[in-house]
Amino acid sequence: MKFLVIPDSFKGSISSTEFCEIAKKSLRIDASDEIECYPICDGGEGSVDCLTKIFDGKVVTAPATDGNLFKRKAIYGYDKEKAFISVAETSGLAKTLIKDPFVTTTMGMGEQILQAKHLGKKKFILCLGGSSTNDGGAGLVYALGGKFLNDRGETFLPTGGNLSEISSIDLTDFYKNIDGSEFIAMCDVVNPLLGENGCTYVYAPQKGAKKPEERDKLEQNMKVFAEKTAFLGVDPFTPGAGAAGGLGYCALAFLKGKIVRGIDFILDAIDFKTKAMSSDAIITGEGKYDASTSYGKAVRGIMDRASELGKDVYVFCGKNDVPGDKRVRELNDPDMSLQDNMRLTAEHLKTALEQFRKTL
Fold this sequence. Notes:
Helix content: 25-40%
Strand content: 15-25%
Number of strands: 13
Structural class: alpha/beta
CATH topology of the largest domain: Glycerate kinase, domain 2
CATH class of the largest domain: Alpha Beta
Number of domains: 2
Shape: elongated
CATH superfamily of the largest domain: Glycerate kinase, domain 2
Strand order of the largest sheet: 3-4-5-6-9-10
CATH architecture of the largest domain: Alpha-Beta Complex
Number of helices: 14
């Protein structure tokens, strides 16, 4: 039999790559069995490794500025023509010591773009997920040569806390540095830059802006940023513009790129249609299968594509909050605590896949 395995990660327990390794061992009961695996990512931490594996590329480690303006080693990936760069690797919330969206920066992502350009790369896949920032991507633009000036004519690095100080912007060197480049931003959220559903009010609390007055100040600063960059011609209420603290807006307005849903990009990259049609079973998984799965999550993207082809998808999840769907298999043992279930996810997945294989 031929299996196509495309799992998401089980956050806090196993990665999508680990799921694939377990599947390769658990599904094979005959020498003729074929198990083709593609770990998927949502644009956050782990995206560089995921994309590098899919495109058979390489991972580079080099110094870059982190969210707190410290220089440290970070990774990005590349293949023959493309570079894979994730904000989570330089300014990721999990890797940021001082979690404060007033001061965190996306400079490191801009530096990695320059590093990849020096390797001759002209196409950039930007992963927008898991950031600690709320700077509208201004730090990225600054690192690529953009000049932000205050009302005294002084150049400064804009962050979430001082975006309102921007008086004028000089993009002469910035445009020289990105000349001939193409940018695609992987993004799985539809939040705009501004408003009650924008990046500040929805995501800034988890980045450190706990108080309502802090979020109000960040939102006001972002409004000024949108006004000062209106000449770039992008509506700040465009879906996805609020991804990663406004990096989605930066990708559209400054980089003249486009935003794509992460799972769609990956499925197109692996030629999902061809591989799905030749498979006997398509398997995916995620930590929790719930109502939110229907709203743009990777597993739903796979199920939708497969449905168009008349193919079933089997979902293995830690917790299933949508009972009644026979395609979904829950791994959790109801007699165990959440902590024990998460600790034993790999073992539970192995058992479930072996049992599943015997039913075919």
